[in-house]
Amino acid sequence: MSMIGADVEQLAGLGRTLTNQVQTIETMMSTVGSALSNTLWRGPARDRFESDWSTVFVKALTSLNDAFRSAGQDCTTRSAELARVMGR
Predict the structure, then answer these.
(1) Ramachandran region of residue 80, left (φ > 0), alpha (ψ -120 to 50) or beta?
(2) How far is it, in rounded angstroms, from Cα 80 to Cα 9?
(3) Among 1.10.287, 3.40.50, 3.30.1180, 2.60.200, what is the CATH number of 8-86?
(4) Which of 23, 42, 73, 78 has the maximal Cβ count within 10 Å?
(5) Considering the chain, what is the average pLDDT of its residues?
(6) What is the DSSP letter of 39?
(7) Model confidence over 36-65: pLDDT tens digits?
(8) 25-58 core/surface letters (b: 16 or more CB in 10 A; e: else)
(9) Cα–Cα distance, 22 to 10 (Å, whole number)
């Protein structure tokens, strides 16, 4: 018979790891956005990259952040509930 459950500390650690990645990705988006804004670069290649950055990449990274934030919170909540049930 298989067991369903989790190690409370590991689950909490996973929650923290996922949540910490949100700031990492936000910093990266800000850094790239700022670098792009401050780079003297004209032409169709820049136009394509800037368009892709603002419509594709930022959207994908924002979705990734939303998923990390949600999963991190879920892991944290579940670990706290497990700890409570286990009397820790």
Answers:
(1) alpha
(2) 9
(3) 1.10.287
(4) 78
(5) 94
(6) S
(7) 999 999 999 999 999 999 999 999 999 999
(8) eeeebeeeeeeeeeeeeeeeeeeeeeeebeeeee
(9) 19
